[in-house]
Design brief:
It is built from two helices and two strands; from the N terminus they run αββα. The protein is mostly helical. It folds into two domains: 29 residues, no CATH class; 71 residues. The chain has a two-stranded antiparallel ribbon with strand order 1-2. The longest helix is centred in the middle third of the chain and has 70 residues. The N and C termini lie far apart (125 Å). The relative contact order is 0.04.
Length: 140
């Protein structure tokens, strides 16, 4: 009796019978499980299984997407490398500018020291300068 019911359910597509719908490129089998309730969401389903040509085109599209993604990733890496080189170059220029500023500062200090030394070796100043004397408190 069970075999008769199974055969009738396949013929009339009722019950929990599975129906082979198709296969994909990896030879995976896809089955249909009919539902009488109608509660399934039909918006994102196809009535017919995709053909082999559609599957081949989809695989080609996936390969193209991967290839394009690889190209974009390579470009992005090259752009990041160029950006890093520019940053390193600017850093080197900034360090060089700091070194030059330090050398100029040292030269200016040396010139000032020489001028002070030259002034101290000249004749003593005989002019009288006014000064303010602050009184000191006792005990300090």
């Amino acid at each position: 009796m069970a075999q008769v019911w199974k055969m009738l359910s396949r013929v009339f597509r009722v019950g929990h019978a599975r129906y082979l719908v198709g296969r994909d490129l990896a030879n995976n089998a896809y089955y249909e499980l009919p539902s009488l309730s109608g509660s399934q969401d039909p918006r994102h389903t196809r009535r017919a299984a995709p053909s082999i040509e559609e599957l081949v085109k989809d695989v080609e599209r996936q390969q193209l997407v991967l290839h394009n993604a690889h190209i974009l990733e390579t470009r992005e890496r090259a752009r990041q490398a160029e950006k890093e080189l520019q940053r390193e170059h600017q850093h080197a220029l900034a360090i060089e500018a700091q070194k030059q500023q330090a050398q100029q500062r040292d030269l200016l200090r040396a010139q000032q020291d020489l001028e002070l030394a030259a002034q101290s070796t000249q004749a003593p100043d005989t002019t009288i300068h006014a000064t303010t004397v602050q009184p000191q408190r006792r005990g300090e």
